[in-house]
Amino acid sequence: MGENKSDVLQGTLDLMVLKTLEAMGPLHGYGIARRIEQVSGDELSLNQGTIYPALLRLEQRGWIKSEWGTSETNRRAKFYSLSRIGRKKIEEETENWERMAATMARFLAPSN
Fold first, then answer.
1. How far is 1 from 4, CA to CA, in rounded Å?
2. Which one, of 24, 16, 29, 35, lies nearest residue 78 by Cα?
3. CB-based burial of residue 44 (10 Å sphere; 0-12 exposed, 13-18 middle, 19+ buried)?
4. What share of the chain is helix, strand, coil (3-state, %, to 5)?
5. pTM
6. How far apart are CA 109 and CA 41, in angstroms?
7. DSSP letters of 66-99?
8. How does residue 11 score in pLDDT terms, banded at 50, 70 and 90?
9. Who contacts 48 (Cβ-Cβ below 8 Å, separation ≥6)?
């Protein structure tokens, strides 16, 4: 990662992947990584060693599913999409992160 790129906070990548698939529909790993970078305003940089273990973990949990297809460059690629469980998990994980963000905001707010 470059000096100005942020590391992905542990636990946030799963929700970013789920939200990306919810918004964009089925995508291959490279497409998911590029979309996350784009939405972050290029503040995040994801490489294969970051995105593919996350996709494997999410697939093993049953939150996403995959099938082989052909990419826009006519290469064989695995396309990922949300599972029924993954759609339910988005709401739960979003609530968890909103609660955590509110807690952090209290710590970061100036003291009175």
1. 8
2. 29
3. buried
4. 55, 15, 30
5. 0.85
6. 25
7. EEEEE-TTS-EEEEEEE-HHHHHHHHHHHHHHHH
8. confident
9. 29
